[in-house]
Amino acid sequence: MAALENVSTDDLRQVLAEVEGKKPTQRLMAAINYLEDDNLTQKEAAERYGYTGGWLSRWLDRLERLADEPFEPVVYDEPRSGRPSELSDQEHDRFVDVLHESPEEVGIDAPAWSVPLASKYLTEEFNVDHCDRHVRRLLTEAGLSHKTARPEYYKSDERAQDAFQDGFKKRNDLDDEYTILAIDQTRQILSTLIYAWFPEGERPSLPVTGAWDSIKLLGAVSDTDETFFLPCEENFNSDTTIRLLDALQTKFGEKICVVLDNASYFTANKVQEFVEETPIELCYLPRGSPELNPAEECWKKLNQALGNRLFDTLDELRDAALAALNSINPPNLFTYLWP
């Protein structure tokens, strides 16, 4: 809607001078902003106050429908009676439609619905107050189910990956003395369950520990099919990165070209300052591109070697991890960087 036919901004400003409370003020200000600025969209007006365009659209529709009534019950939510009200058929259909969208579409700062959020929406939008059990039933009847979302990791743009590979292939600023290395990091805890094959019809169980103590490893794969792994006592930080780079120079020579991801401990200013004083070249992968890093393949093989096993101490885990890594055939770096 472009404007309210039966309500003027002067009317709204007069009410604004008399209302109290954050929500009524936001409702009125968003409506005034939108109606006074022809270039402002509903979405832009709503976002000024932390809501979405859908929230403002519903508020303007409500304002238009109730324009002939006193403003107070329109701007403020009507007080709830002692007995919870029920949704009308039309309101129920609207509620179901809303549930099949993100809560953000109705001005709720959350990526997914929960019983408390749905209950809050029913109260604020329809003046309906239900117990959690009733709200769960409404969610189920609306076709929703209680489950965990699948992780969706940030994925790099394919064009960025192609550009990186083409650029790396065409580099001519490295002389023959440079060794190209891809580095990465991982953590291993005392027990990790992974997929395996078990007899059909049986429910297998394996011992695990609830402890989250872990060992930390930095690793490198070279263009000569060599590997290098460095255990870390502390959490990954700029100092551990510098220690790894220094160790790589000791093993592979001063001139190394290091391919790495954009973790903060790899991109830190302290790391950049260290590299400036050396012949080291750092080449950062596009964000969200683990498939371009051959070191990731080493971690996959390590997980296979250590999975479904319980280690009593971190020392046992560390020894087993290093032994497994030493027996791994390293992947070919060039098949990742310029296939």
UniProtKB/TrEMBL annotation:
Domain Tc1-like transposase DDE, residue spans:
192-318
* Any GO MF annotation of the entry: nucleic acid binding
Q: Which domain of life is it from?
A: Archaea
- What are the residue boundaries of the Winged helix-turn helix domain, all occurrences included? 111-166
Report what the protein is called. IS630 family transposase
Supply the source organism for this entry. Answer: Haloterrigena salifodinae
| Source taxonomy | Archaea, Methanobacteriati, Methanobacteriota, Stenosarchaea group, Halobacteria
